[in-house]
Amino acid sequence: MSDVLVAAETKTYRGTxxxxxxxxxxxxxxxxxxxxxxxEGLVGGIGGFFQKKCVEVDARPGGPRIDVFDDGGDEPEAAxxxxxxPPAVTEPHLVRNDAATREGLETPAVQRLVGEAKPFADLLxxxxxxxxxxxxxxxxxEPETEALPEPEPTPEPKRIASLREGMVAAGLGADLAAxxxxxxxxxxxxxxxxxxxxxxxRNELALRLPVAPAPGPGRRHLAVVGPAGTGKTAAVARVAAxxxxxxxxxxxxxxxxxxxxxxxxSMLDGSGVKVEAISYEDLAVALLGASAQLVLIDTPAAxxxxxxxxxxxxxxxxxxxxxxxxxxxxxxxxxPAAVEMHENLKGLAPNRILVSAAADTSYIGAAVDVAIRTxxxxxxxxxTVVELAPADPRDLASRVVP
Length: 402
What we know:
By secondary structure, the chain is of the alpha/beta class. Helix 7 (174-187) crosses helix 8 (197-208). The protein has helices spanning 18-29, 99-105, 108-116, 120-127, 133-138, 158-169, 174-187, 197-208, 232-245, 262-267, 283-289, 307-320, 335-344, 365-374, 393-400; strands at residues 11-15, 34-43, 52-60, 220-225, 250-255, 274-278, 294-298, 324-330, 352-356, 378-382, 388-390. The protein contains 15 helices and eleven strands. The protein has three domains: 11-138, no CATH class; 158-207; 209-400, P-loop containing nucleotide triphosphate hydrolases (Rossmann fold), CATH 3.40.50. The relative contact order is 0.10. Helices cover 37% and strands 16% of the residues.
């Protein structure tokens, strides 16, 4: 009895992956189902965003199974004129080493199936790293189908690119700017209108920016450290004057100043704040004997080239038990330079950031960048030598994302 292969209706299936579709194809069309074509593309999304990968396949039922061990029984043989000639076999197949198997595999019906069908075994071969040689021997070539062009990447909206570029132009590191914007676009923007994108990015940046809370009541010992030109002395004078103006008892110590403390005294003239120049060795004793509610310490310039100064100053501040050590970061400093400065001055154990000269430039992102990267909270922002206030994260974020 000969087997006749009848063309069956082709059905189309669509899903996110071929693994997802195989059980449904097997259930609908049987385990001998044949995959005719397969296509991939993108579907869905809003305005070019959030598209998902789609896999679409056409399948049809497979032919009947052939028992390769069937000896024919009493079934009459097919007439010679109806025999289906097998396609030419150019390479030997790997088969079991028994006569029955060889005879079964050489029947016209089996050869016809081998030449036309693409069973599920072929799909398993594509999805697994290793397949037995026997499976490879029976694998038929994939049907020739027109290759779909690779989907072109969706161009990034200009407002997203310009927003990221603006943050970098304000001094924020390019990697940090991209991370903030991409996080908002992927996880926050889907819940808001496109017109709020800038506001959402600004809010996200403010949330990531660490800011020091207001200190509790009690005595405070506050030192400002940093390289030359970062506005340390002016910041000390402004903090001292602000607290003295509301009736607090304030004292200022300046460590081994080159001018004997003249610059700090000039800035505090008329404020009622006493300024005393002392040596490193006297700092611990001076703090123990101080009765003032707030003692501020102006320090010499520290830089990578003066390693002894960094080492000795750090040891002095640590031995004296100074609880607030503010690293002065001048607005306008490039982000890599600010991060490098913090790395070089880690021996001073700074635990806060003081942003200086903020009114002189819109390039304030570096101070924000180094605060986020190092997790050092920003405590004060000095606009000028006479204008200083506690940091507001929303205000700083609005300068980076106006």
